[in-house]
UniProtKB/TrEMBL annotation:
GO terms assigned for molecular function: deSUMOylase activity
GO annotation, cellular component aspect: nucleus
Species assigned in the record: Manihot esculenta (Cassava)
Protein name: Ubiquitin-like protease family profile domain-containing protein
UniProt-listed GO biological process terms: protein desumoylation; proteolysis
Assigned keywords, A-Z: Coiled coil, Hydrolase, Protease, Thiol protease
């Protein structure tokens, strides 16, 4: 995730890391992404000494992962991701998408997420949906807007990607369709929620404001709805989707910066609102600009851990086994070093 760390890195910091274990977890400088070391801490935004600031803060694994059932396996997996350097290793494998170690770098501070990172969450929540509600809600993989702004292109997207997610063809039984959208030109992720029975398109836009500003506009929705009319089986009367009314979800959590829209969309999918628009609040929360500087990276790491430990991940057991193997290796190395030091 952040690469291999050595003892030399610790010497770059003005005495702030004295006494911390070099085998601890890594942190990345918010300015230049230089790696530093912290003992039993999760990576998040940190200021680097050589960037002429010495702001240094810490957050325990328990704090950052408070929404998970905390156990010792989580820091072990994070440490494994940091220490090993096989970029081609598959960390997540679902029925329809995979995530290589090399793509985990997008969990670093201020980094832009890729579509396939969002798709791992889509696959996980889709698996839960099929198990708990037999697929009454559909989850599409992430769409890059520029790739389907022509209806004909949308048909290619649907044939190549959506059908692989094994969406049921029974449109009459469908309640909602969740479609994450990446507007590459605007560098923004947002989510379309199509409420089929009442024919409404609900937009979750993390950049929406009380003044009505939103990155959703008239160019996206018509192509999306017309494309669905041409692709989704089971439509008896057309036009169907193009008649949907557009609504902005105003009470949804909003990102307080310019780079976390993707993680907010992913967490929104994990904490879907009820019919009254209310969420459980266990994952997605509104935070202030000041708070988010501290918790931005923790949000990303928490989501990554959730995906890696999810039942949808076929690599979960093997990943945990390798993580424990590395943990034991590091412990043995530490013990041998202590014995040598004791013998003088």
């Amino acid at each position: 995730m952040f690469g291999t760390i050595s003892a030399e890195h610790v010497q770059q910091f003005d005495g702030q890391l004295d006494g911390l274990d070099v085998n601890g977890l890594c942190m990345a400088c918010a300015c230049c992404s230089t790696l530093i070391v912290s003992n039993n801490m999760l990576p998040y935004l940190v200021r680097h000494y050589e960037c002429r600031t010495s702001v240094f803060d810490t957050m325990s694994v328990e704090q950052a992962c408070s929404t998970l059932s905390y156990n010792d396996d989580q820091p072990a997996v994070i440490k494994y991701i940091i220490y090993e350097n096989n970029d081609n290793e598959t960390l997540f494998e679902g029925d329809n998408c995979i995530l290589f170690r090399s793509r985990i770098e997008y969990g670093k501070p201020r980094q832009w997420l890729e579509n396939n990172v969002v798709d791992t969450v889509v696959e996980a929540v889709r698996k839960e949906e099929v198990r708990e509600r037999n697929g009454t809600n559909w989850f599409f993989p992430c769409i890059t807007y520029e790739s389907y702004k022509e209806v004909s292109s949308f048909k290619v997207y649907y044939d190549d990607h959506v059908q692989k997610f094994a969406v049921t063809s029974d449109l009459e039984a469908c309640e909602k369709i969740y479609i994450p959208i990446h507007h590459y030109g605007r560098r923004h992720f947002l989510l379309a929620v199509l409420k089929v029975p009442n024919q409404t398109c609900l937009w979750f836009d993390p950049m929406w404001s009380d003044e009505g500003y939103s990155l959703t506009d008239e160019e996206i929705l018509p192509v999306l709805l017309e494309g669905l009319d041409n692709c989704v089986p089971g439509i008896k009367t057309k036009p169907f989707f193009p008649t949907f009314e557009e609504v902005i979800q105003k009470n949804a959590p909003r990102q307080p910066n310019g780079w976390d829209c993707g993680i907010y969309v992913m967490n929104f999918l994990r904490d879907l609102p009820d019919d009254n628009g209310k969420q459980s609040g266990k994952i997605v929360v509104n935070v202030t600009e000041r708070d988010h500087e501290k918790f931005s990276q923790a949000l990303r790491i928490e989501c990554l851990l959730w995906v890696l430990f999810h039942e949808a991940n076929k690599k979960r057991d093997g990943l945990l086994l390798e993580a424990k193997r590395l943990q034991n290796k590091l412990m043995d190395s530490d013990n041998n070093s202590d014995e040598k030091e004791a013998r003088g």
